[in-house]
Write a structure and sequence with these properties.
Porin; mainly beta; globular; 241 residues
Length: 241
Amino acid sequence: MMIKKLAVFFICMVCPFALQAGQGDPISLETMIIDVPTAETFDRYQASFLTRAYDHGALMESIDFGVFPRINIGVSVAAHELLGSSDDVRVLDPDFQVKWKVFDGNLYLPAIAIGYDGRRYGYGYDEHRNFTDSDDFLDDRKGGYITMSREIIFPGLNATAGINLSDWEELYWFTGMYYTLADKVSFLAEWDNIRNVRDSRLNLGARFYLHPSLALDGAVRRVGRGTESERILQIRYVTNF
């Protein structure tokens, strides 16, 4: 069974190379800041492949498709302790995500989208936030959410805010901003999981546009949380299908 799971994960990792992006295929829509969803969606017939390397040698592949105008669906799968020399590699259960942009926004109102994000991070933590032999996650699913986005103050500065119902039980807030400089780099900041200070997360990072269809992110999650803080590296590739 483990061999089958590893095979599925391997296919998810290599399938982006089976598709070819033309020189003009741009990453024109910022659908996520780091963990916070914006109101933007990928165009119809676009596919996005996002690979994230993060805490404890984990690697996650997220694949999203623009299946209808304004509607994206996707699936994510992660392998825990895949990077490094650990013998305890575990392929985690797949999660899914979906987003529907219900309003484009105008001069006075922001763009609005609703969706669901099942991705979880920080596998192997106990109820005291200690990394141990556990099947629990440090960060729960975002779950169902509504998000609003628009450009503010001056060109290139974009803000997002919204609410989410984590695991359909707890209501949280999130907000974030990013500023794009000369279409070469974006500076990212977000405050996620806002309900109380202890559970909230401050994430900071930068996005580098290596190609019109390829972007590299470096970020720190849970800034100021000591051993809970983590560095992540992720790369996103967008093409047509």
